[in-house]
Amino acid sequence: MPLHRTNDLSLTQRLRHAIRHAGALLGHALLPQTCVLCSLPSGDKPVCGACTKDLPRLTGQQCPRCALPLQGNANGIQITCPDCAHHLPAFDKASAVWSYGFPVDTLIQDFKYGHHLYLAGFFGQHLARTLIKQWGTARGNAQPDLIVPMPLHPNRLKDRGFNQAAEIARQAAKHLGLPWCSDALIRLYDTAPQAGLRREERWANLRGAFSCPKPLSGARILLVDDVLTTGASLSACAQVLRHAGATRIDVAVLARTPEPGHAK
Ligand SMILES: [Zn+2]
Ligand SMILES: [Zn+2]
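Above: the input record for the complex with zinc ion. Below: its predicted structure, written as tokens.
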């Protein structure tokens, strides 16, 4: 069984988070199920069918490596991905359920910062569906051996009370019938927030930030996170996983930012 890294929290902090989580879950259970986006009845889901269908998808051609939407290619010419041309990520392939635009951005922010944990099931289910569709008939060959969430530093875990990537990974693993492990990766440094840093600074900022205490010889890993922007954090994790013996590292996220991150 995966060991959840909540042991570092003090009793008061754990109680405070438990009350907050229980309050959010109870409130959601007691209220009639209405869609969080349009307030119409939504059955047993937090988002109704019509709103789910309208969530922004990644359309057209995407970079096979980092899932960035690519423009043009009317004549079948291979388009170079600006992000991968700038810095090829250490993971093999990224998949995203949605494009990081409204209202997916709001849903993810509410989930992360507003303690809307009831969205985890919805997110995990859609991540699993996207992967199953991609794996298709080659499922046996394409599916990973282990699902690993992007780790959160203990300091951030204390602030937030949960790791959003672990909650998504847990739910996706349930739907996929695959094992997951919340402590295969450890975040060693509470690195400066990535937002606001130039791309090169982001990559430098993450050097040595992660560690993998488990032997993963020959394992195919699916690394899960909420959003892929530049891929710098996910790439740093993939490097560490490969060092631990993993032979393939795929990335699965809820949303991919549709704009190249290399210039930011
Ligand atoms: Zn709706
Ligand atoms: Zn790319």
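Notes for the reader.
The two ends are 40 Å apart (CA to CA).
Residues 35, 37-38, 40, 47-48, 50-51 surround zinc ion (ligand 1) (CB under 6 Å).
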